[in-house]
Amino acid sequence: MKSNQITVEISDNRKEKPAFSSLQFGKTFTDHMFVMDYTEDQGWHHPRIVPYQPITLDPAATIFHYGQTVFEGLKAYLSENEEVFLFRPEENIKRLNRSCERLCIPQVDEEIALEALQKLVDIDREWIPNVEGMALYIRPFIISTEPNLDVTPSKSYTFMIILSPVGAFYKEGINPVKIAVEQEYVRAVRGGTGNAKTAGNYAGAMLAQKQSGKSGYSQVLWLDGKENKYIEEVGSMNVFFKINGEVVTPELSGSILEGITRKSVIELLKHWNVPVSERKISIDDIYDAYKNGQLEEAFGTGTAAVISPIGELFWKSEKLIINDGKTGELAKKIYDALTGIQTGKVEDPFGWRVTVQ
Amino acid sequence: MKSNQITVEISDNRKEKPAFSSLQFGKTFTDHMFVMDYTEDQGWHHPRIVPYQPITLDPAATIFHYGQTVFEGLKAYLSENEEVFLFRPEENIKRLNRSCERLCIPQVDEEIALEALQKLVDIDREWIPNVEGMALYIRPFIISTEPNLDVTPSKSYTFMIILSPVGAFYKEGINPVKIAVEQEYVRAVRGGTGNAKTAGNYAGAMLAQKQSGKSGYSQVLWLDGKENKYIEEVGSMNVFFKINGEVVTPELSGSILEGITRKSVIELLKHWNVPVSERKISIDDIYDAYKNGQLEEAFGTGTAAVISPIGELFWKSEKLIINDGKTGELAKKIYDALTGIQTGKVEDPFGWRVTVQ
C-alpha cells in the first residue's frame, strides 16, 4: 500500500474554535479524523481523512465485550515561527504495533501511520494552540469491530486518529502533585498486559485513582502485582527518583509501560552525564532514602504531562515531603529541555523533532 | 423508577431465522434489544426495548480508549412444553453490579434489569432454539460513552441487552477438551480486575489462547499471577477436580470470577452429599494426584458450556490424560442435573429456575 493512497475529504462545516486557554484535557476535538479499515480478505485498507464524525457499530462488536483495542498518545507543537513539530512519532507507531501483538490485533504499516499522522495534523494545524504549554494531543487507536460474542480475536478492525487541543494534563501544571502509594489495588502483573497500551489497564486503574482522589491525592503510585513492594508507575506515567545524586527509574519488567518520555529522559540524562539507572526499586528503598535525607527529587514522565514533579508521597499513614514540596531543579531542567526541543525553542541534538510539512 | 416504564417498540422488519442446528456461537442476533441510558443529571433512565440496531458513538467515547465496561452472560431455555426458563438471573444482575463497583460504573436497579431481561426474552421467544442442547444466550452489558480522553470515570453510560441463539460453546460439545497449563501469560492478579466481568480480562487472555490453539489445545489453564503455581480458571470457565473422591475447586481469591455455574455445582454437590471444598490448589497438587492415580476427573464450568470435561492437561511437556480422556461420571451427572433443571426436565429443589411469563 502506497502512502499517497490516503484520500482526503475536507469538512465543509468547520467548528468554531474554543478559547484555547480555558480548555479541559481531551474534551474538544478538531474538524477531521483519520480512518483505516481491516478485514481478513483485504488487510488494512482504505486509509482516509474525513470530517470528524461518530462511529457506528453493531452492539455485538467485540470492542464492547472483550476490549480488544490499543491506543497511542503524542502531541503536535506549534513553534514561535508557526512551524508544527511532532516528537519521536515513529516511537509511538512502533509501540502501537508492539501493543497490537500482545492484543492479537494485526499490525499497521508504519509508513502509512506516520503519513496519516502528519497529513491529519497538517489539515487541522489551525487547531494547535499558540499558547505557552499547550499543544494538539494526537490519539491513534484501533478497535475490534466484528459482531461476535465468542472470545476470539476479531476478524475486522478500525484504526483511527483523532486530535484534541490540550493544556496541561494536571490542573497543577508543572507544579508538584501529591501521590498516594497504592496498597490494595494492582495495575498490572508480569504476564499480563501492563506493557501494552490497551484499554483494560486504564479501566482497572480508575477505582484506586478515584479513592486516592477522595483523600486529596492526584494519582497513585503503583506497586508490582507479585510482591506488592516494587515500584512500577505513577498514575498513567513512568516514575523517576533522584537519590543522592543518582537518578533511578524502575526497569522494564514486562508490566510497565515503555514510555517514550521515559526513554527520552534517560537519553537526555546520559547526554548530560547525570548518573541514571534502570533497576528494581522497592518502596522501602524510597522510604529509606527519604529517612536518610537522600531522596532529592521524584517526578512522573508521560506525553500528557511531560514532567510531573511529585511533592508528596503518602505511604503507610506517613507523608513523605520531597524537596520541600517544590519542583526539583533537575525536574525543571528536564521539563525545559524536553518542551524546548518539542516546541523548537532549543537545538535538538538527538533528531527527535519531526517537522510537519 | 417503576419497571412498567420500559417502553417497547416492536420491529416491523423481522429477520429470517437461521437453521438453528448449524449456528456458530454468538454470531446471530435476534430482532430486538434492550437499552437504558445513564447521565449524571438523570441517573439511569429511559429503559426501552427497540429493534436490534447499531450503536452510534463519538470516536472519543471512553469505551474505545479506557475500556470502562462490564458484561454478563446467561441463557434462556425452551422446555418441551414450550415454557421459557432463565437460570438464576438475579445472580447475574448482582454480579453485574459488583463488576460495576470495581469499574467505577453506576449500578443498575436490579428490578428493572430483571424485568428487562424477561420482557426482551419474551418478545423474542421464537428465537429460542427448540433443539436439544441449544439455548438463547443473553448478553447484558454496560459501556461508557462520554467523549473524554482524560483517564477518569465516564459521566455517561449505556446499558444494553442483546440475545443470540446458540449451540454448544465448544465444538466438542460435552466431549472432553484438551487444555494446556499456561506458563508465560497471566489472566489476573489479586488487586486487579480478575473477579469482575470486564472486557480487559478477556482481551488480555486472547494471546495465550491463540498460542495454545496452535498446539491443538482448546483453552489454557491459568495459574495465579503472584506465584505462578496456584490454579485459577480454565479459559473463561471456573475449574473443578475430583481427587480421590473429593471434588475441589480454587477458592475465590479476588482474581477468580465468581461463576454462577461454579456456585451451583458446589451447591448441587453438597445437596448430593459429595465431598466438595474450595481451597488453594497448586498445579503440583494436581500433578501429584495424577501420578498417584487419584486424579479422577477434571472439568470446567460456565454459562456458555455448562460443564466442559477436561480429557487432557498439558504441563511441562507432559500430557496428563484424565479418566482415559473420557467424560467423567460425575461431570456427566452434574451436566444432566444442571441442564435438566435449566430446561425443566427435572425437579428444581433449589428454586433456581425462573419462568418467563
Overall description:
The structure is a homodimer of 357-residue chains. Chain A is of the alpha+beta class and 357 residues long. The first copy, chain A, has 2 domains: 3-166, 2-Layer Sandwich (D-amino Acid Aminotransferase, Chain A, domain 1), CATH 3.30.470; 177-343, D-amino Acid Aminotransferase, Chain A, domain 2 (Alpha-Beta Barrel), CATH 3.20.10.10. Chain A has 7 helices and 19 strands. Chain A has helices at residues 63-66, 89-102, 110-123, 199-214, 260-271, 283-291, 329-343, and strands at 7-8, 32-39, 43-51, 55-57, 69-71, 74-78, 84-87, 135-144, 156-166, 177-181, 219-223, 231-234, 238-243, 246-250, 276-279, 295-302, 306-315, 318-321, 353-356. In chain A, strands 1, 2, 3, 5, 6, 7, 8, 9 and 19 form a 9-stranded mixed sheet that branches. In chain A, strands 10, 11, 12, 13, 14, 15, 16, 17 and 18 form a 9-stranded mixed sheet that branches. In chain A, helix 2 packs across helix 3 (110-123). The longest helix of chain A has 16 residues, at 199-214. The radius of gyration of chain A is 21 Å and the shape is globular. The model of chain A has no long low-confidence stretch (mean pLDDT 95). Chains A and B meet through strand 4, helix 1, strand 8, strand 9 and helix 4 of A and strand 4, helix 1, strand 8, strand 9 and helix 4 of B. Chains A, B: GO terms for molecular function: branched-chain-amino-acid transaminase activity. Chains A, B: Belongs to the class-IV pyridoxal-phosphate-dependent aminotransferase family. Chains A, B: It catalyses: L-isoleucine + 2-oxoglutarate = (S)-3-methyl-2-oxopentanoate + L-glutamate; L-valine + 2-oxoglutarate = 3-methyl-2-oxobutanoate + L-glutamate; L-leucine + 2-oxoglutarate = 4-methyl-2-oxopentanoate + L-glutamate. Chains A, B: Keywords: Amino-acid biosynthesis, Aminotransferase, Branched-chain amino acid biosynthesis, Pyridoxal phosphate, Transferase. Chains A, B: This is Branched-chain-amino-acid aminotransferase.
